[in-house]
């Protein structure tokens, strides 16, 4: 069985674990975090199973670039306020010491009025 069969985010991208979908295309999937820290808090993931940024190589640069530029568009659509008074935070936890709990690469996108639960 492939590692992705046991991966919670592979299963969310495949629709076998339900989520509130924010966006989907052939390479990427975005969905609301189940325990939001901020009024807007969603995750952008690649559909392909990459464990973390520690495994990202030059071959992933176009995919990672697409994730980065998708974030501001989705942030506005999901209710973040405009820059500079508003804005949003993008966060990629990597490895245990980096605070990563789910080992399928994901960008957290958080925004909305303060205070937030964390940070
Ligand atoms: P990490 O700590 O790995 O950077 O973040 C993992 C995030 O995934 C956490 O913020 C957590 O709330 C979220 N998460 C974990 N399991 C699920 C789930 O089953 N569904 C959704 N929507 N989010 C999840
Ligand atoms: Zn996965």
Describe the protein in words.
There is one protein chain. Strands 1-2-3-5-4 form a five-stranded antiparallel sheet, with helices on one face. It has two helices and five strands; from the N terminus they run H-E-E-E-H-E-E. The protein has a single domain, classed as HIT family, subunit A, CATH 3.30.428.10. The structure holds guanosine-5'-monophosphate (5GP) and zinc ion (ZN). The site of zinc ion has 6 residues, from helix 1.
Question: Can you summarize this structure?
Answer:
This protein has a single domain (8-111), classed as HIT family, subunit A (2-Layer Sandwich). Helices cover 20% and strands 21% of the residues. It has 2 helices and 5 strands, in the order αβββαββ.
Number of strands: 5
Bound molecules: guanosine-5'-monophosphate, zinc ion
Poorly predicted spans: none
Strand content: 15-25%
């Amino acid at each position: 069985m492939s590692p992705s069969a046991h991966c919670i985010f592979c299963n969310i991208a495949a629709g076998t674990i339900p989520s509130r979908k924010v966006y989907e295309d052939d390479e990427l999937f975005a969905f609301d975090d189940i325990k939001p820290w901020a009024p807007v808090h969603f995750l952008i993931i690649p559909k392909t199973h990459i464990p973390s940024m520690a495994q990202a190589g030059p071959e992933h640069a176009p995919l990672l670039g697409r994730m980065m530029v998708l974030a501001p568009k989705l942030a506005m659509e999901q209710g973040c306020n405009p820059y500079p008074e508003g804005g949003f935070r993008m966060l990629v936890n990597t490895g245990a010491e980096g605070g990563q709990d789910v080992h399928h690469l994901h960008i957290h996108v958080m925004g909305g009025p303060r205070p937030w639960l964390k940070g």
